[in-house]
Amino acid sequence: METYIPENPTRYNREKGKIYLGIPSGSLEAQTLRLCQEVGLLNEQPGRIYQFQALFNDIIFRVLDRKELAEEVEMGIVDAGITGKDYIREFGNPEELEVIESDLIFSKKSTQPSRLVMVSDPKKIDDIERTKGARIFTEMPKLTTQMLQECFGFEGADLANINLSRGKTEQKLRTGRADAVADITETGTTIKENGFVELGTLFESNPQLIANKDSIKDKAVLQVIEDFGASLKSILDAERNPMVTAIMNVPKKLLEKVLKGLPTNTSPTIAPLQDNEWVSVTTVIPDKDYFKIAPRLKRLGATGIIKTPVQAIY
Predict the structure, then answer these.
(1) If 172 and its partner were Cys, which of 72, 99, 178, 303 is the partner (CB 3.0–4.6 Å)?
(2) Is residue 314 part of a domain?
(3) CA of residue 198 relative to chain centroid, distance
(4) List of residues 6+ apart from 24 with CB closer than 8 A
(5) Of 191, 221, 240, at which residue does a domain stop?
(6) What is the pLDDT of residues 163-222, one digit of tens each?
(7) Distances (CA, A) of 29 to 64, 97, 167, 228, 262
(8) Would you say 160 and 133 are in contact if contact means Cβ atoms under 8 Å apart?
(9) What is the pLDDT, as a whole number, of residue 263?
């Protein structure tokens, strides 16, 4: 039987001249795709498709396993990708990767970082020191071992019984298979609901945009990846600290009073209007303060005050 050889074989089935970006599967996938829509790279969610074209910049997205993504960026399967810092430490080689955006603060349920925490049944173990030599199960044995060494001084026999869990890690406490577990949580709700306690936080993680070091030797590729990261961060910053643009018309004779009514940390834009007796004033203020400030500005003489949400902050 002859060996199959594809026409025009390319490494990892990549199309020449395209930039490949990795989307993490699992809990971060929907949020990452939503952000790609917000920055104009996608019209709609791609559903179950694992590879799809962006709307511009010759970008092709590949949905990859979040645990393997760091390794696949390093291999060149994609030029860059998003995954958690914890997965990069556990499954990748951080020194072989370039971090483009270090903290893209978003997750499945909240804007809190995910945490690798040591958990146990308080009737058995109520202090992290008592986990030395205990049966510990975790999906991240490498990172757990490193952080117990670095943060809590564990060594040698203290770490001899750290085991790989392939899922349902906290259930191993209930069945008695584990004395303690190191598990990922955002809110800690499931831990509390099951009657367990957090003994300590080993590691905090946010998603990072990482790049292949060889890929970004091409300045054009680096620019596209940096722009992608900056755009995502601008959306996240605007969502985390909602701001609005307030636009108003002000009689020139009342301008000084109106400006004094604005927050002291703002630097408004003042533009002439067709009527020489009036100017347009534009400023950016926190959304939560708009309905405190707008009535005051109206009393001071501003009219036609328009509120426009700020969608992105670069």
Answers:
(1) 178
(2) no
(3) 24
(4) 32, 63, 64, 65, 66, 69, 81, 82, 83, 84, 207
(5) 240
(6) 999 999 999 999 999 999 999 998 899 999 999 999 999 999 999 999 999 999 999 999
(7) 9, 21, 19, 16, 41
(8) yes
(9) 87
List of long-range contacts for 232-237, beta carbons under 8 Å, 24+ apart: 232/35, 232/39, 232/101, 232/104, 233/101, 233/104, 234/39, 234/312, 234/313, 234/314, 235/35, 235/38, 235/39, 235/311, 235/312, 236/35, 236/104, 236/105, 236/106, 237/312, 237/313
Residue type, 41: L
Q: Do residues 212 and 196 both lie within one domain?
A: no
Residues 73 and 200 in one domain: no
Which residues lie closer than 8 Å to 91 by C-beta, 6 or more apart? 67, 68, 70, 71
Does residue 100 share a domain with residue 212?
Answer: yes
Rounded to two decimals, the pTM is: 0.85
Q: What is the DSSP letter of 291?
A: H
Q: Where in the sequence is the domain holding 182, given as residue range(s)?
A: 114-204
Token pair 């795709």 is at which residue? 33
| CATH number of the domain enclosing 213 | 3.40.190.10
Statement to judge: residues 29 and 138 lie in one domain: no
Look at residue 158 and tell me if it is in a domain.
yes
> Domain of 284: which CATH number?
3.30.70.120
Measured CA to CA, the distance from residue 157 to residue 133 in angstroms comes to: 6
| Helices 219-240 and 29-38, packing angle to 10 deg | 100
Domain count of the fold of the chain: 3
Mean pLDDT of 147-174: 95
Find the length of the chain. Answer: 314
Do 76 and 51 lie in a common domain? yes
In a domain, 5, yes or no: no
